[in-house]
Write a structure and sequence with these properties.
This protein has about 170 residues and is mainly β. It folds into two domains: about 130 residues, no CATH class; about 30 residues, no CATH class. The chain is built from two helices and nine strands. It starts with 7 loop residues before the first helix and ends in a 16-residue tail after the last helix. It is a single-pass type I membrane protein. Keywords: Membrane, Signal, Transmembrane, Transmembrane helix. One of its GO terms (cellular component) is membrane. It is found in: Membrane.
């Protein structure tokens, strides 16, 4: 999206492994991406934890498929993820999304207040992340696939959807 805010890593992420990584520690450390139009892949290769470089390097990737399928692949995880300190940076793995609305403050009409609404989060149990493992997320049909009030209200999905005329969602 085009909105950057200080709560971005807390509310909007696709994170195979979020931690305090230091890609500048070694010349062999890279963060690369590749896109062939069908799948977009980001790979963290031989990255080290800041201040804990002696633990070894991590290699993992996230593959986002055009179909909505997401695969996290873990090649090298040298220590149990549960042992990584979250003191300097959050440690988590999973998916989260949110949206932000700018509201005017009632007492100051010319001001704008940002309100972030997190609407979905999938957290992985970091204790299950290990070398040579993978996690796959397969999307389910949702209300968000509907582009009009008619298709939303006529849907056979069992989510009790309703159309918001203000947001056109």
């Amino acid at each position: 999206g085009d909105v950057v805010h200080r709560m971005l890593t807390a509310t909007q992420y696709v994170a195979p492994l979020m931690a305090n990584f230091n890609p500048g520690y070694s010349r062999d450390s890279t963060v690369r991406y590749w896109d062939n139009g069908t799948v977009f892949v980001v790979q963290w290769d031989k990255v080290y934890l800041q201040g804990k470089e002696d633990l070894g390097s991590f290699t993992f990737q996230a593959a986002l498929h055009r179909t909505g399928r997401i695969v996290f692949g873990y090649k090298e995880i040298p220590v149990p993820v549960v042992r990584i300190s979250a003191a300097q940076h959050p440690v988590k793995a999973g998916l989260s999304d949110a949206f932000m609305i700018l509201n005017t403050a009632p007492d100051v009409p010319e001001s704008r207040r940002r309100t972030i609404y997190e609407y979905h989060r999938v957290e992985l149990d970091t204790g299950t992340i290990s070398s040579l493992s993978a996690v796959e997320f397969t999307p389910l049909p949702t209300c968000l696939q509907h582009q009009s009030c008619e298709t939303c209200e006529g849907s056979e999905l069992t989510f009790n959807c309703s159309w918001c005329h203000v947001l056109q969602r």
